[in-house]
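User: Structure please.
Assistant: Input sequence and predicted structure:
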Amino acid sequence: MRKIVSLNKNWLFVKNTADITAREGEAVDLPHSWNAVDGQDGGNDYFRGTCLYVKTLVKEELPVSDRYYVELRGAISSADIYVGGKKLAHHDGGYSTFRVDITDEMTDKTELAVLVDNSPSDTVYPQMADFTFYGGIYRDVNLICVNETHFDLDYYGAPGIAITPKVNGTDASVEVEVYVKNLKEGQTIVYTIYDKEENELQKIESRDTKAVFEMKDVRLWNGRKDPYLYCCEAEITENGEVIDNVCNRFGCRTFKIDPENGFILNGEEYPLRGVSRHQDRWGVGNALLPEHHEEDMDLICEMGATTIRLAHYQHDQYFYDLCDERGLVIWAEIPYISKHMPLGRENTVSQMKELVYQNYNHPSIVVWGLSNEISIGGSDEDLLENHRILNDLVHEIDKTRLTTIAAVSMCKMDDPYLLIPDVVSYNHYFGWYGGDTSMNGPWFDKFHATHPNIPIGCSEYGCEALNWHTSDPKQGDYTEEYQAFYHEELIKQLFTRKYMWATHVWNMFDFGADARAEGGENGQNHKGLVTMDRKYKKDSFYAYKAWLVSPETDPFVHLCGKRYIDRVEDVTKVTVYSNLPEVELFVNGESVGKKTAPDHFFRFEVKNAGESKIVAKAGDLTDEGTIRKVDTMNMDYVLVEKAAVLNWFDITAPEGRFSLNDKISDIIETKRGKLWLVGMGLKLKKKMSANKKQKDGEKKSGGFDVDLSGGAESGIMQMLGGFSVLRLSSMMGMMNVSFTKEELLKMNKKLNKIKKPKK
């Protein structure tokens, strides 16, 4: 009978070595990441290299078995496995499970050594992306002890059983296929289906590795309404004794993605409105424990989401299990992201095989993501061929699900790469990176009119917010108030277009991106609806809850701006979110009126004098906060960039002339501004090229490597047009570019020579 032994405890960790005999290190337990601190503190300087993990296995402490497999559920990005000093395996791909048979090298005391490497590479994805590539063995490691005859443990890290339910009316045909090694005469396979309460429903005994169950009056897996799960167990038996067994849950459901009516689950329209999720946390990197995954799921469900895009890589099996249990509809993808690498095709194929085979049984998954923003530098034939190969591969392995991509804003609507997958989504940030919020809905209308037969969704949208505040929110100010305004607008535009097959906020949680230097807290992307430590739900979180959560199941009222106390204006705006139809606001115990709001966003104007207690009341529910009249703005609410070379008030800005404080989009409206930007792009290209040479020689951390030399017309510059030149310069850390004070002042001097157009 199969036994699984956890190997998480008592490893020796030696940093920055490829020597498997090195022993000067520290004791650690798994999961573990060596970038839990330096991968989140900014500077784009987190350690990327090779580290050693060592553990001794004592055979007499282990179950007696014929074969022993070490199972690693995640080691970024590449790993070499040594047993007794002998190299047994190499694995490329940091987000999937892989296993190694160590039986033949085991002794009474066996030294297991794992070299893990997250160095830059031109063959293993990801290499360029807006998140930290945390190194380490950051998921569980197990020893799987099995009989000589066993369900295959070498088959792409998969569970050894594939379950394919096909629903027909009220019934279902459930095909089960198992992968077995060394099945002998006299051994049989027993297949059993259980209901959710573990009652046995049907049993089939056979020598065949395939079985088909006909189930009557099947209970459907019906999203968050009723995520019902059955279980199928397969046992290899001999003379009545169970030699090995595997068990996987499954759900019976149908789905369709319609270009006019969006997502349809079990024959009914089921709008997919939700979030994307990164797997890391403050202080632990991506070395998450089960309670971390559970808290994430609780928060996502509280918000009312029906879908999650699990970006940008394969997530922990435990989280996919939670998605099955809680009824979230899932987009699963590989880290084929941002930059197509001609030498990386084999790795995209291997990571896709592992993703699909390992996750085939999860009813929550409906689409496999081929890539994310991969055409940011354009679509060449090699990139297109890579996508065709992946698309065909997925359909060959899994005939029950669809494929998708996340295209970046500057990807044109006639790009041939959009025709490869079954459905398409776009990452748009109009209202944050250039443009304004009003552009989002019309853009999707245009795509829908251009491609009426291609289902279209929004795979990323969002803006950053930290603990900065204002009564006059502006694009790019990083305030909680602007983020709330942005999401109010996007909710109204995206959720009312039923043809959109899915929408995913970027992101549910703030996450580590060590190359980032913006918003006043370096090393993070702050687009989350919840902070990275999961301690604070930003106001925008409640905007979604107001739209997505039924008042019958979870009525609530939320007073916005509770962290924004000191205010200078005599009359201030107060916003309340609720899923109830009416809100009454009280100031120091006196009602200032009742409001209804079909969009769930209730607006009040409140006289600001002295200190006032504000109470929002909806039904029997209340939420409260305080405002206080001050004469001058509380500077604790105003962003000052950390480690900024210059501040906006240090810059000369003659009247009628441009400066570093002006937006890119305004500058490029003038002919001289466009010429300045072209010249700037060429200088950036030189800086990036020089930094790339240095990086190649020194194994430095990777960031974005985008070609900005196209000037004003380039897609990336148009996307970033909503930022001032100064703000953009602070963001260049993501592209391995930094500016000195002298360089910025020289740049400002040139901009001062360019006249602003007359209004």
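The first strand starts at residue 3 and ends at 6.
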